[in-house]
Amino acid sequence: MPTIIVEVMPKAELLDPQGKAVTGALTRLGKSQFTGVRIGKRFELTVDGPVDDALLAEVKTLADDMLANTVIEDVISISVLDEGSR
Amino acid sequence: MRIGVVTFPGSLDDRDAQRAVRLAGAEPVALWHGDHDLNGVDALVLPGGFSYGDYLRCGAIAARSPIMNEVIDAANAGMPVLGICNGFQILVEAHLLPGGLIRNDHGDFVCRDQVLRVENTSTDWSNGFSEGQEIVIPLKNGEGGFIADQETLDRLEGDGRVVFRYVDVNPNGSLNNIAGISNERGNVVGLMPHPEHATEEGFGPDTSLAMRSGVDGLTFFTSAISALVSR
């Protein structure tokens, strides 16, 4: 079955406390080459049927309306997973 | 006077909110998120808790539950609606209030008796306070940082829609120390602190008079009753 991937990230200008905590942990582990971590979300929507432009448009609406809150997050990408890759 | 309290899966403070309604002199009505029925109530409280385990985003899934269609219609028609903590998050996710609530800037859950300043006494949930009055209300949240873009913030400030502001301590990194806001009409109010936990002597925050004697939260509910009576 095809899978549509939606990726969401906290807005760049907002503090990402989760990312900040992981950055702190990396520093404590001596991994000082990593100066920042930001944590977002990846949704995998499994589809029963073919993926066409109409469905992708619906996913775009869904992503902006529900999967992300565009006040605090940005939808980074919407893509169709290549079935051969899993 | 009947005030409905909506229970969502994961609501924690619905019973406390019902009790607060009763202590204020109204009849609490338990409402269920899965119904399409407000049971003829005169006002609504969306209580605190962790609906749907805060999955997706705090309040995001609850904001799309069946009863929210009726809640949104009632709010837009002028019914007094109060969102407390998770209820505030639900109101924001339902676009009844602007802005967003994000994880506390210090990363920790915070639980404290919080001083608030009442900035607007014309809303349905704050008309019993005096302008600038300082009140003490318990606060307990992990994701209570209020944010909005500059334009929205300017509009909220300019229109006097910041109803409650944190005093002394900003417990979660909220912009402009904002603890609670209202819609334009003043019938919908959301705040992170929990007025329902400061409604009965013996169970509220400490005051200079006696331990646990703080009942500043009661005025939220009596305000709604006054607003309804004067209509």
The tally of domains of chain B stands at 1
The DSSP helix count of chain B reads 5
In total, the number of domains of chain A comes to 1
CATH A-level architecture of chain B: 3-Layer(aba) Sandwich
Structural class per helix/strand content of chain B? alpha/beta
Q: Going by CATH, what is the homologous superfamily of chain B?
A: Class I glutamine amidotransferase (GATase) domain
Spans of at least 5 consecutive residues with low confidence of chain B:
none
Protein structure class of chain A: alpha+beta
Task: Give helix % range of chain A.
Answer: 25-40%
What spatial order of strands do you see in the largest sheet of chain B?
Answer: 2-1-3-4-11-10-9-6-7
Cα gyration radius of chain A (Å): 16 Å
Strand content of chain B: 15-25%
Estimate what percentage of residues of chain A fall within beta strands.
Answer: 25-35%
Give me the count of strands of chain A: 3
Mean pLDDT of chain B: 97
General shape of chain A? elongated
Strand order of the largest sheet of chain A: 2-1-3
Intertermini distance of chain B: 12 Å
Report on this structure.
The complex is a heterodimer of chains A (86) and B (231). Chain A has 2 helices and 3 strands; from the N terminus they run βαβαβ. A 3-stranded antiparallel beta sheet of chain A has the order 2-1-3, covered by helices on one side. Chain A has one domain: Phosphoribosylformylglycinamidine synthase subunit PurS (Mth169, Chain: A, 2-Layer Sandwich). Chain A has helices spanning 17-28, 53-67, and strands spanning 3-10, 41-46, 73-81. With 231 residues, chain B is α/β, with parallel strands linked by helices. Chain B has one domain (2-229): Class I glutamine amidotransferase (GATase) domain (Rossmann fold). Chain B is built from 5 helices and 11 strands. Chain B is globular. The interface between A and B is medium-sized, with 12 and 20 residues.
